[in-house]
């Protein structure tokens, strides 16, 4: 039976270190301050925004929420981003996804100052990620890397199958894992015969939002499984992986909840603090 990769415990541990870092910055008169722009009424987004706010408060970071109505015009958001980009009090900002239909999220992301881009989604920072010259990384991908490192799971030469090709999870994770010399396959909704890929994988990362996509007969013995998916099934939170069955074959596996989720929030806050330090000439 697989060992649990306890993301919650690691997030708590790292949270203590970060709290100390924030305290030290404050002693120098610097308080990390970041802004979340949320457009519309998406229920999940509101929950995520609130959980970030709670975490920020615990750490001593200031988080402002700009809640904009669902019919907000593109220009209004661009104007807000311009204002936050040039405000010296603000160290970081992000736009909560998804955005309403009339909004071009790509244009918003491209407008954010890369130096304040806590999600690392601006074209400049995406480029830096693939050039191995990055100062900020997308939080979920960074959290997964930290989890594997914490449990001393090597990636050198390993066959990794990442399922999901989103800009926030699959693609940046592939870049970070390539840096660790893993051999990466990225699967997605048009991939044929997913099982033939997952059966060969030493490490599987699933980020699709499809409950029970990964079943026990799709994985080899000893596999390491990282489940990013967050799905609500009959009122219960589950991942993409058939956890009870797959854990019998896995050597390590993340639970949902308590796996990747807490690390995402933790590493978002790490990004805020790192950008703040960088803007103030700290390493
Ligand atoms: P997304 O919708 O942008 O991307 C989903 C990806 O999954 C796409 O690339 C799609 O091609 C692929 N996919 C969908 N169905 C598939 C299938 N049957 N077979 C193979 N590939 C398939 O989603 P996202 O924003 O990357 O999020 C993915 C999941 O991860 C969601 O459940 C989301 O809630 C969750 N998520 C969790 C965290 C966390 O911190 N735990 C962070 C981000 C996203």
Fill in the CATH topology of the largest domain: Rossmann fold
- What is the name of the CATH class of the largest domain? Alpha Beta
User: How many structurally independent domains?
Assistant: 2
Which architecture of the largest domain per CATH? 3-Layer(aba) Sandwich
Flag low-confidence runs.
none
Please report the total strand number as a whole number: 11
Query: Termini distance?
Result: 42 Å
Helix content: 40-55%
Give the biggest beta sheet: 6 strands, parallel
Averaged pLDDT: 97
Order of helices and strands: EHEHEHEHHHEHEHEEEEHEH
* Structural class by helix and strand composition: alpha/beta
InterPro entries: Aminoacid_DH-like_N_sf, NAD(P)-bd_dom_sf, THF_DH/CycHdrlase, THF_DH/CycHdrlase_cat_dom, THF_DH/CycHdrlase_NAD-bd_dom
Catalytic activity: (6R)-5,10-methenyltetrahydrofolate + H2O = (6R)-10-formyltetrahydrofolate + H(+); (6R)-5,10-methylene-5,6,7,8-tetrahydrofolate + NADP(+) = (6R)-5,10-methenyltetrahydrofolate + NADPH
Pfam families: THF_DHG_CYH, THF_DHG_CYH_C
Function: Catalyzes the oxidation of 5,10-methylenetetrahydrofolate to 5,10-methenyltetrahydrofolate and then the hydrolysis of 5,10-methenyltetrahydrofolate to 10-formyltetrahydrofolate.
Brief rundown of the structure:
This protein has 283 residues and is of the alpha/beta class. It has two domains: 30-113, Leucine Dehydrogenase, chain A, domain 1 (Rossmann fold, 3-Layer(aba) Sandwich), CATH 3.40.50.10860; 139-260, NAD(P)-binding Rossmann-like Domain (Rossmann fold, 3-Layer(aba) Sandwich).
């Amino acid at each position: 039976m697989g060992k649990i990769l306890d993301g919650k415990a690691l997030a708590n541990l790292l949270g203590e270190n970060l709290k100390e870092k924030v305290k030290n910055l404050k002693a120098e008169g610097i308080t990390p301050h970041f802004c979340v722009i949320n457009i519309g009424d998406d229920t999940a987004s509101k929950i995520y925004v609130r959980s970030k706010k709670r975490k920020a408060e615990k750490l001593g970071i200031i988080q402002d929420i700009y809640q904009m109505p669902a019919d907000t015009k593109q220009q209004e958001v661009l104007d807000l981003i311009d204002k936050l980009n040039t405000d010296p009090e603000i160290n970081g900002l992000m736009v909560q996804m998804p955005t309403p239909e009339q909004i071009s999220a790509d244009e918003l992301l491209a407008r954010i100052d890369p130096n304040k881009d806590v999600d690392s989604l601006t074209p400049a920072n995406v480029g830096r990620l693939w050039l191995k010259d990055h100062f900020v990384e997308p939080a979920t991908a960074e959290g997964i890397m930290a989890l594997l490192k914490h449990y001393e799971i090597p990636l050198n030469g390993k066959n990794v199958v990442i399922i999901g090709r989103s800009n926030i999870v699959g693609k940046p994770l592939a870049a970070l894992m390539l840096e660790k010399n893993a051999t990466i396959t990225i699967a997605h909704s048009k991939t044929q015969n997913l099982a033939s890929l997952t059966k060969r994988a030493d490490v599987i990362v699933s980020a699709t939002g499809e409950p029970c996509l990964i079943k026990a007969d799709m994985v080899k013995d000893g596999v390491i499984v990282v489940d990013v998916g967050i799905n609500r099934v009959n009122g219960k939170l589950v991942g993409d992986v058939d956890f009870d069955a797959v854990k019998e074959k896995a050597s390590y596996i993340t639970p949902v909840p308590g796996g990747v989720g807490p690390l995402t929030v933790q590493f978002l806050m790490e990004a805020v603090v790192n950008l703040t330090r960088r803007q103030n000439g700290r390493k």
